[in-house]
Amino acid sequence: MDSDRNVYLSTDGGRAYKFSSSGVKLWTFDSGRELLPAMHIDGTTMLPAGAALINRTLFNVRVDCTVFALDAISGKLLWSTKAEFKAGSDTASVSAGEGVVVTACSDEGWAQGGNNKIVALDALSGKKLWTYVPANCVYNFMASIVAGSVVFEDSQGDVYRLSLSNGNLLWHAPAEARHAWSTATVAVGSNNIVYAAHNIVDESGLQRGVLTSYNLEDGSLRWSKHLEFGANSGPAVGDLTGTGRGPLSVLFTIGTNPDIAKPTWLQGKEPLERPWMGDEPLNPHNLSDDTKPARIMALDALTGDLRWEFTLPDWHGVSANDTLENNCWPDSFANPSIGGDGTGYVVGESGRVYAVRDKNGDGFVREADGEVSFFDTYRAFQAAPAIGPGILAVAPCNGLAVFLQD
Predict the structure, then answer these.
(1) Is pLDDT above 60 for 280?
(2) Residue 281's pLDDT band (cuts 50, 70, 90)
(3) At a CB cut-off of 8 Å and minimum separation 6, what does 4 contact?
């Protein structure tokens, strides 16, 4: 979303759109027709990553790892660079800041999902600046660019800080032992603290989430909090009091991922297995009765102490209205967002857009007190809510919904 409250949307059909706040389509960019040469990976021109907008320029990456820049006013192509062989279609994001564009891609020999390289390009010219190969692959890549550096997390929970100018490693914080696969991401607060989430496998074989904070300067550990359910989305850091003067909080979600929609001949049988994960079932952290619990939490950003929490209704089965033919296959939640009035916005597998706020500051969030409300889109989410002055935009797997303040 830009300062004029225009909304930008990328789709797996390979098109990018710009809409006014009133819903008028201002332009369309077709990356398959207008971005040459045409690419043929998986027979598609999808845009697997969330775009980045800075200085009236929109940056994105195609599934063949062609990174490109568009003029946000006109939608015209400014430059494009084939940075690597491909970009995994795993709902990653492009980040941009301090004159540099950063995204995740992979080389031709990479057969797993996600990506195995981080690439950086000059934001003005598209010239490739550097490549970095982390210890593990990255899923749902979303980097934070801050103070001449880029901070990100890999699929095992390891956190990295690289020099933005040359890609040199400044520090690497490995996740704790018994780490497990996670699609979570990091956030850097205005307090120069890095917040990262990942999963571990406990003694009973169930996945549990861990939220950890590190000092941005040197990667030293500040605190680590073990959570009841899995952590598969990133945190948001901000003032949840709505005063602009309150202490920082970390808004975070935990929960069990939905099942994947099965073909008819598999319905009623054991969960599908991910082919690249051997015999590990899709949801090893499901409870024994197959319910999928979920919770929204607000933590003190300095100490990790719980400020408040809200337990959502249990989910069951696949995500909202998923079918084999039209399969969103999200995590339990997308990343949350925090509005300027202190309201937290949460979306995920249920298709509901939740607005949550501890209005009276008593440390409890209750529906009866008008502190929780929701709107049902009836489709699950991969994308985080976008917020501007008097506007909220959300992108479920079947489109775009925009809410305007009275």
Answers:
(1) no
(2) very low
(3) 21
Range with the largest mean pLDDT of 39-48, 72-81, 251-260: 72-81
Q: In 3-state terms, what secondary structure has residue 277?
A: helix
The β-bridge partners of 374 are 354
Q: Which residues pair with 97 in a beta bridge?
A: 100
Nearest C-alpha neighbor of 320 from the set 376, 273, 275: 376
The model's pTM is 0.91
Torsion sign, CA atoms 263, 268, 274, 275: negative
C-beta neighbour count of 196 within 10 angstroms: 27
Q: Are 299 and 309 in contact (CB under 8 A)?
A: no
CATH for 1-142, among 2.60.120.20, 3.30.465.10, 2.40.128.630, 3.40.50.2000? 2.40.128.630
pLDDT at 15: 92
Per DSSP, the residues of 94-133 read -EEETTEEEEEEB-TT--SSSBSEEEEEETTT--EEEEE-
pLDDT of 279 reads 34
Task: Determine the CATH number of domain 233-406.
Answer: 2.40.128.630
274 has pLDDT over 80? no
Q: Is the pLDDT of residue 288 over 80?
A: no
What residues does each domain of the chain span?
A: 1-142, 233-406
Kindly report the backbone phi and psi dihedral angles of residue 203, in degrees, each rounded to the nearest multiple of 5, phi listed first.
-65, -25
> By the 8 A CB rule, do 232 and 199 touch?
yes
Half-sphere exposure for 245 (CA within 13 Å, toward CB): 1
Token code pair at residue 261: 């929609």
* pLDDT at residue 404, rounded to an integer: 95
